[in-house]
Every structure is written in structure tokens, then in C-alpha cells.
């Protein structure tokens, strides 16, 4: 490791520079909590709710900041004390071959990061979320979810990592093969996740016949959006926060509504929220975002293939040779600044899509008011930041701030 090694400088910028950028953005965001509520949100956040959300956001950021500092500290100490070189040498000493050794290294690093983060996840769940009335997760469910996640990483994540390591270890065009593999895997998981993986954590039950179910199927028919199933998810077993999502393709589409959403919103609001989600499909947002994601993945894999050929890249982390598995772990540090930049484009596109889906929903239900009221209620119930700083929005928000969405909805023609 040396300051004369450009890869070492890039890694420093990636690890320490991005951390400070995130910290600066957080400070700016917190500073806006003291501002007066915009006129359009005066009726949404009462003074009591405003005081509660200020405390909630600050406490949440305190947990995440402490976790990030801890992870950064552990990483820097491990890195600068020669930990990566030691780990690679020890893994190679097991005599399992380059592919298995690479997967083993990836698994150990991911496991270490997961377990370092675990106490902070517990602090957030049983401390912050519980203090503000959101948490419904029991310790047994928390532990069960953790081990289920580890099992999924072992059953799905490790074979995927093994295939990618094998490509870069043996093929002439590894980035291309890895990109094609990831593209196919992503499409497969889009279909598989709601049917196999999500039921491991959530219980899906068919929605009972009634006004809401008829309204949902009526909306689907009106918009020519085939729906095969409407399910209610037991989200209240973990949190009081509401949610809804679509899954599947074509005639196998499935609508899932959290039971917490059903308890806190009117039928008209829920229908408008679902019309918004249908709008994403009708406006072709899903394939656009998938294409953008795959384009970024292609860029990352291409750059990674270049880095993995450089002994200097590995030397920046105290690693001898060019071991592929370790390289996959280390490249994430180098890529962070560029990942922030490419992420800005994806987030900007996502926020644009949200405005379009909002407008579609307003037209679909004949008025912007049901969605407007639903968004207000969601924001209030989730204690969302009423006016986040633009830097935080640019860097992290896939949805526009509430005040901007309300302004756009209210500016729609009255005939909508």
C-alpha cells in the first residue's frame, strides 16, 4: 500500500470520501428539520406530529451514522493492518482451488459485515422503531428473519458469486458473460421472489370478497390490466407502516396489500395508490429502469474486468497476485464514487416516473384527491421528512418529496 499507487488513492476516495459526502448530506438534511412546515403541508403535520418526526428522524440517523462509522473503522483498521492480504493467504492455504477460494472469501466478508451490522439493526428495530410505535417484530421473528436471510445468501448468493468468479477466472470475455448471466438471473428473480422468497418472511392470504376487492378488480378491468390474485400480507407482524406492491407478469400478476395499509386508508385512497402502481406498468417504467440498471451493471463489470487484471489494484489492499474472488470484494470500494454518479441518473429517472405515475393515477380514478390524501396519510404515518434537502433528494430519493408531488397533482387539469 502506497500513496504512489493510483488504485490506493482511488480506494481512499471511495471509502473515506464518499463517507464524508454522505455525512455532509445528512447534516444538511437534519438542518432543515427546524424549518417551518410549508403551507401545503400545514394540515398534514400537526405540531405534535412534527415534533415526533423530528425526534424520529434524528434518532434514526444516529443509529445509521454510528453503524456507518463502526463499519468504516473496522474496514480501515483491517485494510491498513494487512487484513485482506492475510485473509487471502489463509483462504488459499485451504487448498480448494481459485473458484471455491474466491467464493469462500466473499462469503466471509459478507458474513462479517452482516454480523457487525446486526447489533445496529436490533438497536434500530427494538429501540428507535419501537419507541415511535412502528415496531411489531418480536425477538424470535427478528432472529428467524436473520437466519433465513443468511440461508438465502448461502443457497442463492454463493452459487451466483461462484458463477461470476468462474467467468472472470476462466473466460476470455468475462464481463459480457457475467452481464448476460446477471440479466437472466434478475428476470428470474423478478418472477421467483414473490412466489418463493417473500413467503418465507410474509404470509399471503387471499383478500376476502367485499367493496375493496371489487373496486380493485374494477380498476384492473377499466385499465385493461389483467390481475390473477389480490392478497393481504401480514405486515403488521413486523411494523405498523403500510405498503403495497405488484408481482408477476401478464395474466399471473399478483397484487399484494399490507394489512396495515388496509387499516389506515380508505377504499378510494387504496384504489388510487394501486392506480399509481399500474401507471408504472402502463408507462413502461419497469423495463426502462431495468434497462438502466443493466446498463450500469455492464459499465461496472467492464471496469471490474479491467481492474482485476492489474496487480497494482490488489497491491493497494495488500493482496499478492490477482485473486478474482477477493477482487470482487475490493472493487466495490473503488467503484463507490462512480456508483454515486451513476446512481444519480437512476434516481432522477425514478423521480420523473413517480410524477408520471401520479398523473396516470389521477386520470384513472377521475380526480387527484384520493391519491393526494393517500400520500399525505402515508407521509404522516411514516413520519417522513416534510422538506428534505435537495442534496439528500438527489443522492437517495427514488420518490420526489411530498410537497413536490402534491404541487404536481394539484396542477393537473380539472378534467383529470
List strands and helices in order, with pairings.
Layout: H1 6-31, H2 47-80, H3 83-92, H4 98-131, H5 139-170, H6 174-197, E1 204-206, H7 211-222, E2 229-233, E3 244-247, E4 254-258, H8 259-264, H9 267-282, H10 285-308, H11 311-315, H12 324-365, H13 369-381, H14 390-396, H15 402-410
Helix pairs in contact: 1-2, 1-12, 2-4, 3-4, 4-5, 4-12, 5-6, 6-10, 7-9, 9-12, 9-13, 10-12, 13-15
Quaternary state, please? single chain
Order of helices and strands: HHHHHHEHEEEHHHHHHHH
Strand content: under 5%
Largest sheet, strands/sense/barrel = 4 strands, mixed
- pLDDT averaged residue by residue: 91
Overall shape: globular
Radius of gyration from the alpha-carbon trace, in angstroms: 23 Å
Helix content: over 70%
> How many domains make up the 3D coordinates?
1
Instruction: Quickly give the structural class.
Output: mainly alpha
Membrane topology: Multi-pass membrane protein
Active site: 277, 358
GO molecular function: metal ion binding; metalloendopeptidase activity
Domain CAAX prenyl protease 1 N-terminal: 30-203
Amino acid at each position: 500500500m502506497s500513496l504512489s499507487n493510483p488504485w490506493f488513492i482511488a480506494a481512499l476516495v471511495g471509502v473515506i470520501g464518499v463517507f464524508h459526502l454522505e455525512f455532509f448530506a445528512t447534516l444538511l438534511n437534519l438542518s432543515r428539520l427546524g424549518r417551518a412546515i410549508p403551507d401545503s403541508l400545514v394540515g398534514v403535520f400537526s405540531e405534535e406530529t412534527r415534533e415526533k418526526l423530528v425526534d424520529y428522524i434524528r434518532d434514526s440517523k444516529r443509529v445509521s451514522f454510528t453503524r456507518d462509522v463502526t463499519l468504516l473503522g473496522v474496514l480501515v483498521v483491517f485494510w491498513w493492518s494487512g487484513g485482506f492480504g492475510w485473509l487471502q493467504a489463509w483462504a488459499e492455504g485451504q487448498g480448494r482451488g481459485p473458484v471455491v477460494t474466491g467464493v469462500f472469501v466473499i462469503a466471509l466478508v459478507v458474513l462479517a459485515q452482516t454480523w457487525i451490522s446486526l447489533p445496529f439493526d436490533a438497536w434500530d428495530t427494538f429501540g428507535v422503531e419501537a419507541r415511535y410505535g412502528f415496531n411489531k417484530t418480536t425477538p424470535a421473528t427478528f432472529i428467524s428473519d436473520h437466519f433465513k436471510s443468511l440461508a438465502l445468501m448461502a443457497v442463492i448468493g454463493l452459487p451466483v458469486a461462484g458463477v461470476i468468479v468462474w467467468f472472470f477466472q476462466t473466460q476470455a470475455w468475462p464481463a459480457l458473460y457475467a452481464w448476460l448471466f446477471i440479466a437472466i438471473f434478475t428476470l428470474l428473480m423478478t418472477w421467483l421472489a414473490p412466489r418463493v422468497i417473500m413467503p418465507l418472511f410474509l404470509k399471503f392470504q387471499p383478500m376476502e370478497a367485499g367493496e375493496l376487492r371489487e373496486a380493485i378488480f374494477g380498476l384492473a378491468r377499466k385499465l385493461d390490466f389483467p390481475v390473477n390474485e389480490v392478497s393481504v400480507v401480514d405486515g403488521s407482524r413486523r411494523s405498523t407502516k403500510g405498503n403495497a406492491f405488484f408481482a408477476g407478469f401478464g395474466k399471473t400478476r399478483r397484487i399484494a396489500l399490507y394489512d396495515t395499509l388496509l387499516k389506515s386508508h380508505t377504499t378510494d385512497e387504496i384504489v388510487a395508490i394501486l392506480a399509481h402502481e399500474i401507471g408504472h406498468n402502463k408507462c413502461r417504467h419497469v423495463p426502462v429502469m431495468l434497462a438502466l440498471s443493466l446498463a450500469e451493471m455492464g459499465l461496472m463489470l467492464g471496469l471490474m474486468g479491467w481492474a482485476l487484471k492489474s496487480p497494482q489494484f490488489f497491491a493497494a489492499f495488500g493482496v499478492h497476485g490477482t485473486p478474482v474472488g477477493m477482487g470482487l470484494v475490493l472493487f466495490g470500494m473503488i467503484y463507490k464514487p462512480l456508483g454515486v454518479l451513476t446512481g444519480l441518473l437512476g434516481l432522477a429517472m425514478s423521480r420523473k416516473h413517480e410524477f408520471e405515475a401520479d398523473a396516470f393515477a389521477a386520470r384513472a380514478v377521475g380526480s387527484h384527491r384520493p391519491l393526494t390524501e393517500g400520500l399525505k396519510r402515508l407521509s404522516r404515518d411514516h413520519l417522513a421528512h416534510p422538506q428534505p434537502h435537495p442534496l439528500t433528494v438527489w443522492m437517495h430519493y427514488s420518490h420526489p418529496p411530498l410537497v413536490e408531488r402534491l404541487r404536481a397533482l394539484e396542477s393537473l387539469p380539472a378534467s383529470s
